[in-house]
């Protein structure tokens, strides 16, 4: 199953979360490797100027619609995406699936205390989860990381190095690694550890998590300015398609 929509030259997976998880189950069962990337307006705008990033995103198995701007763009362009799956939300779903299906999970990235604390909290939420192992983000030797992950016999690997470093790490090493599913998760270990608070449910349900982050971190304003430019390009694309 490979249903995609194209938004300004960037693929977005148009599968609801349960269908997406079923497809991931199939990949794990068949040992068919796949990379998950989160697609938001900022990343789509970056891809307009960076052909290598565009190729990396489009070559991934799953491009989840992370951000209300992506679902708005899909609607304006006649697509079917009416939902959003944040990076941390995707990780939450994969952890739940891993607990239910007994998939083995490996964590790589962040500070030692952060990743250890995150794993502890995750074990509290999912007592049945099989943690295959972890490495903090200060380990930079790819050969060491590859050996640790392969020795752990993991099915799913979460990489928290920040974007695009985490995606480049996965792209560079996926052929040498044995697990099936790879997700770059940015600051999600900080969220699970409790070091960073997620937006309240009210903001999440309305698709306004970006607004909460902006209020909490005004320094993000420059990054958020990509959204109006993105929507302007979408409106121009819609006019051309009419």
UniProtKB/TrEMBL annotation:
Reaction(s) catalysed by this chain's protein: UDP-N-acetyl-alpha-D-mannosamine + N-acetyl-alpha-D-glucosaminyl-di-trans,octa-cis-undecaprenyl diphosphate = N-acetyl-beta-D-mannosaminyl-(1->4)-N-acetyl-alpha-D-glucosaminyl di-trans,octa-cis-undecaprenyl diphosphate + UDP + H(+)
Domain of life: Bacteria
Keyword tags: Cell wall biogenesis/degradation, Glycosyltransferase, Teichoic acid biosynthesis, Transferase
EC number: 2.4.1.187
Molecular function as annotated in GO: N-acetylglucosaminyldiphosphoundecaprenol N-acetyl-beta-D-mannosaminyltransferase activity
InterPro entries: TagA_TarA, WecG_TagA_CpsF
Pathway annotation from the record: Cell wall biogenesis; teichoic acid biosynthesis
BP GO annotations: cell wall organization; teichoic acid biosynthetic process
NCBIfam families named in the record: wecG_tagA_cpsF
Family the entry assigns: Belongs to the glycosyltransferase 26 family. TagA/TarA subfamily.
PANTHER family linked: PTHR34136, UDP-N-ACETYL-D-MANNOSAMINURONIC ACID TRANSFERASE
Function statement: Catalyzes the conversion of GlcNAc-PP-undecaprenol into ManNAc-GlcNAc-PP-undecaprenol, the first committed lipid intermediate in the de novo synthesis of teichoic acid.
Protein name (record): N-acetylglucosaminyldiphosphoundecaprenol N-acetyl-beta-D-mannosaminyltransferase
């Amino acid at each position: 199953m490979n249903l995609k929509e194209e938004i300004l030259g960037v693929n977005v997976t148009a599968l609801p979360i349960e269908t997406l998880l079923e497809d991931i189950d199939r990949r794990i069962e068949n040992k068919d490797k796949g990379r998950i990337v989160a697609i938001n307006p900022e990343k789509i705008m970056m891809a307009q100027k960076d052909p290598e990033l565009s190729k990396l995103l489009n070559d991934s198995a799953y491009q989840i619609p992370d951000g209300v701007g992506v679902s708005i763009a899909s609607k304006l362009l006649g697509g079917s995406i009416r939902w959003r799956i944040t990076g941390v939300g995707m990780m939450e779903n994969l952890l739940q699936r891993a607990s239910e299906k007994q998939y083995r999970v490996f964590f790589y990235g962040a500070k030692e205390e952060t990743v250890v604390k995150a794993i502890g909290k995750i074990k509290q939420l999912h007592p049945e989860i099989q943690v295959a192992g972890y490495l903090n983000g200060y380990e930079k030797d790819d050969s060491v990381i590859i050996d640790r992950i392969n020795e752990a016999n993991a099915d799913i690997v979460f990489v928290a190095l920040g974007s695009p470093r985490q995606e480049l790490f996965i792209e560079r090493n996926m052929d040498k690694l044995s697990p099936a599913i790879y997700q770059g998760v940015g600051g999600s270990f900080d969220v699970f550890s409790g070091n960073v608070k997620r937006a309240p449910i009210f903001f999440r349900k309305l698709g306004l998590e970006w607004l909460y982050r902006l209020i909490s971190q005004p320094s993000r304003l420059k990054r958020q300015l990509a959204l109006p430019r993105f929507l302007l390009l979408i409106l121009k694309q819609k006019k051309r398609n009419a």
